Amino acid sequence: MPWAIFACKVINVDVLREALDAYQSLCHKDYHLKIGSVHQELLDISFFFLPEHFLHLAGIGKLADLADIHNAKSKSNLYRRLLMGEIDYNYLQSSAFFPEIDRRLHDLAYLPRLLAALKGGKVIIKFNSQLAGTRIIADFLLYQREQEIIYHLFLKGRQQGKYVPVSFFSRNTPKFLIRQTKLKILDMYVVDKRINMH
Question: Which ranges carry the Phage-Barnase-EndoU-ColicinE5/D-RelE like nuclease domain (predicted)?
C-alpha cells in the first residue's frame, strides 16, 4: 500500500508551476518573424511576453470568488505571489470557476514548444473575428497542430511592428482558421534580452 501512495505523489503534477516556469522562460526574449509567400517577404514583425500578461492568458482573473485574486493590489503583485508560491495550484482549484481556466494552465505549459516549431509554419494575418465567431481582437494568429489539438496564440499590435499576446488556448476544431488569410513564416529568430543588458 505505501508504494501506491508514493506513486500517486509522483503523478500529482503542479500544473500552475509548470505553466509559470514555461511562461517565465519566454519573458526575457523577443521573437522576430519574417512572413510572406515562397517568393516574397511581406512582413517583419516581433512580439514579446510581459509578466503581467500571464494572468490574462491563464484566465486567473476569472477566479473572482478567491479573496487573494479579487483583492490583489496589482497585476505585478499577484504575478509575484504566484511565482513565490504564496498562491498555489491547490488554492486556485478551490474556486468554483476553476474549471474555466484548468485547460488554459495546461496549454500554457505547451507554449514554448509552439514557439519553437513556428519556422516554416503558417500565420493568419489580419485575423477576422467575425469569420471565426469570436470577440477576440487580434492582428495575427500563430497556430500549431499537435495531433487532434490546435494551439492558438493571438497577437495584437502594441507599437509599430511590435506585438503582444492577447489570448492563448487550444481547441480540437479549426474554427479560428477557416477562411482566414494565411501566409508562411519564412524565418524566425529569437533575441535574448538578458544578453544585451549591460
Answer: 16-183
